[in-house]
Amino acid sequence: MTDPASPDAAGLPAVETLDGPAAVRAVDAFRLVYAEAFAEPPYGETEADVALTFDRFRAEAAHPAFRAALARTATGEPAGMALGTTLDLRSGWWDPYVAPADRHRTFCLLELAVRAPHRRRGLARRLHDALLRTTDADRSLLTVHHAATPARAAYHSWGYRTIAEADPWGNGVHAVMSLERRR
């Protein structure tokens, strides 16, 4: 589904939400955005890191609650992306922060990235909001690298609060952040 507010007169990229099968069909666009954005500091991901991430992509996308948002320019060039899923009963890095009984009500923002030429124009927020509109979960949970100061500041300005700090993947301290969405 395409965000009805985009693209607008300012030429902002259009944001489309996708389920798992549609995201798999667009995997090259997601990979391009991810590889470019996460090669930058503080992440420094290599081609091998990207390959590992996208080896898991099909499995994540097969989960019935998986959702994605993809932004493209008027010429079809990928500009940004967001991925997420409801936790349900699966275990993972979130175990200390979400009780098993609450997992089905918790949406995990797995990735959010915008290519450099499209930053500082509100695209990350539009991707985030489009993705969260696909779920009725009570809360959203994410991790963000502690050294990613602009991303952490953005999440705080969107209402997230830091609930812990952890190093779940052995690549540096991450803030574990939560957004309560009860309406």
What would you say this structure looks like, in words?
The chain has 183 residues and is α+β, with helices and mostly antiparallel strands. It has a domain at 14-137: Gcn5-related N-acetyltransferase (GNAT) (Aminopeptidase, 3-Layer(aba) Sandwich), CATH 3.40.630.30. Helix content is 28%, strand content 27%. The chain is built from 5 helices and 7 strands. It has helices spanning 20-25, 27-38, 47-61, 123-132, 149-157; strands at 14-19, 67-72, 78-86, 106-114, 139-145, 161-166, 174-180. A 7-stranded mixed β-sheet has the order 1-2-3-4-5-7-6. It is globular and about 45 Å long. The protein starts with 13 loop residues before the first strand and ends with a strand. The model is unreliable at 2-6 (pLDDT under 50).
> Taking Cα atoms only, what radius of gyration do you get, to the nearest Å?
15 Å
Low-confidence stretches: 2-6
Task: Give the name of the CATH superfamily of the domain at 14-137.
Answer: Gcn5-related N-acetyltransferase (GNAT)
Query: Structural class given helices, strands, pairing?
Result: alpha+beta
Q: Could you tell me how far the N terminus lies from the C terminus, measured between alpha carbons in angstroms?
A: 23 Å
Strand order of the largest sheet: 1-2-3-4-5-7-6
Order of helices and strands: EHHHEEEHEHEE
**Relative helix content:** 25-40%
Largest sheet: 7 strands, mixed
> What general form does the structure show?
globular
CATH architecture of the domain at 14-137: 3-Layer(aba) Sandwich
Tell me what portion of residues adopts beta-strand conformation. Answer: 25-35%
**CATH-defined topology of the domain at 14-137:** Aminopeptidase
CATH classification class of the domain at 14-137: Alpha Beta
Quaternary structure classification: single chain
Mean of pLDDT: 91
